[in-house]
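In practice, a research group might receive sequence data for several interacting partners and want a quick structural hypothesis before committing to experiments. The following worked case mirrors that situation: the sequences arrive first, and a predicted assembly follows.
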Amino acid sequence: MSVRQRVMGLNGDEAVAWAVKQCDVDFVSAYPITPQTIIVEKFSEFVANGEVETEFVPVESEHSALSACIGAAALGARAFTATAANGLALMWEIVYIASSLRLPIVMAVVNRALSGPINIHCDHSDSMGCRDASWIQIYTENAQEAYDTVIQAFRIGEHPDVQLPVMVTLDGFLISHTLQNVKILPDEVVKDFVGVRKPVEVEIPGRGRIPLILDPENPLTFGPLDLYDYYFEHKVQQHEAIEKARPVIKQINEEYYKISGRKYGDGFVETYGLEDAETAIIVLGSTAGTVRYVAKELRRKGYKVGMLRLRTFRPFPYRELVEALRHVKAVGVMDRSGAYGAYGGPVYIETKAAFYDEDEKPKILNYIYGLGGRDTPPTMIRKVYEELLEVSRTGKIEKKMKFLGVR
Amino acid sequence: MSMFKINLRELAKKPNLLLPGHRLCAGCGAPIVVKQVLMATRGPTIVVNATGCLEVATTIYPYSAWNLPWIHVAFENAAAVASGIEAAFKALKRKGRMKYEHIDVIAFGGDGGTYDIGIQALSGAFERGHDFLYVLYDNEAYMNTGIQRSGGTPMGAATTTTPAGTVIPGKKEHKKPIAEIAVAHKIPYVATATPAHFIDLMRKARKGIEVNGPAFIHAFSPCPRGWRMPGELTIEISKIAVDTCYFPLWEYENGVWKLTDRSLAIAKNPKLKKPIEEFLKLQGRFRHLFKPENQKIIREIQEYVDLVWEDLKERCENI
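A structural hypothesis for the assembly, expressed as tokens:
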């Protein structure tokens, strides 16, 4: 039974700030960049008004923001940062180091097109660019989910089996700046749910079990030079850790449902109308709302269409995807990032790879859409479904990759 | 005022915080500087290290020479990492989750990680006023990658990216005045030091640890490999660097400049000041300057050293 929740009019950024406030985060460091800035502005208000005990460090660059989070997290603190586009690009080096140090930092990435040309609006080129950084990546659909997912992210990343950083993304402006009714859990409910960060312990020969933090009584060396004799094993450990995140993401999704009454599919994928669908669209982020709207409309008219929203992109839910879509005849994969010189967009490539070993599989098409914030209205989605229905009838694909809404 | 009294007999009993067995070169100034700084610690301490020789040679996995908690993240962000540790300590203490009354944070960075790629993070941390000590061990080039010029390389020095050519005889520019840049941030404590003047260095390190807010120590760190000199000259060359006023010893404490140790003696007795050739002639990186056609560069270096020295003396209130 879920508790009484307060409905607040919040945009996505504010919803994230509320989640961070309620998660009793020890340390926040960030640098302003549109469309992320509202998160830290709102959080600064909480700090300035004494509503949180967090140490907030407004640094001089995103590179330093994540670096400071690493220092804080290595001391045992729960750390959070937020960024977008070029800010994430500037952090790049540290993004990989945060995960290799196995520090469960949570970062909100407010998706924005990566320069150049410079642009402030939504696409997924920023977070897709670091999809192989060994961070868990969860793409949210609206402000409510952004709030819910940030709360879940601390539990996922800090789980003893995982110990990896988590990236929670929300579409720039479409979610970050759009006012929605957001249900906010009572503070104590969130506090109980996330608890206090408990650093894992490690067994050191001759020293017993000691906490994996910077502790003067139990000195450890973090970030040593690691060459060909050990580097590879450490990278394999990261691979194992993100695999172990699979059951954890599902479990936290269920546990969160119990306190809030909200869950997002199985934590990985959320489907609509797939039971009898002949065609389906795979989509991430806010565009899922538009796709669902169009799918509903077409189903009312008797068309057998469905959709799958990919919520967790890393680790990639290839089994869940195949199970949900193996009976469908044609699938359109929507990618909101470019694929220069590649076989297709990142979601498309993953989807095709997931189906490669299957005997029964749909025709799979790729639609690159919405780059630099290009609007993706229902008419555009309708055309995609029409084309997919045609492919499902004829079995013929005219062109594997298309750009939507380009003049 | 600091209650720190340097008693060598007592200090010798203090456990080594940088243990033997690291792989820094024989004669390297960095581990001497680090050991002396760590002799001056007062309690629980965490060390942050920028990428560089010191980091690489002291922590080849699965070995570590560090007998205290130590973290390396990247080249340019030691000051940012230190900021995070210092600030998170405050939060954890406030929330009752910190077992220590206080933890001192010391960051070590080379000249590349401080003058060049790390100066943004350093300047930001100074401006925000984090309570930590940053120690620059300055060996005057990117030694870890093979002796390339940095903002800390002196004029005339031959490096692998400023070779002594027939047209361009070594580096054309003077060193960036890094310690004065630190002073310009109006942080509570800035000082210069060398491993040869170790009492002075330890006293300064302790002050840097004790002040509330950022402190910066610019430590001279000879590199026999990069400077093309015998390893046994490390302490000698450090003394000569001070005696020629190439590397004067001073401190800036709460707005007041003071000369210290040998540099104070030189200011009081200018006859002690040696010509710059004494410093240059011991090092292969300056060998080409002694060719007749390059003698003017030596004069130029001498003029610059004199200018900086006179300017420094004017600022210092204890002469």
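Before designing any experiment, note the following. The radius of gyration of chain A is 21 Å. Chain A is about 40% helix and 20% strand.
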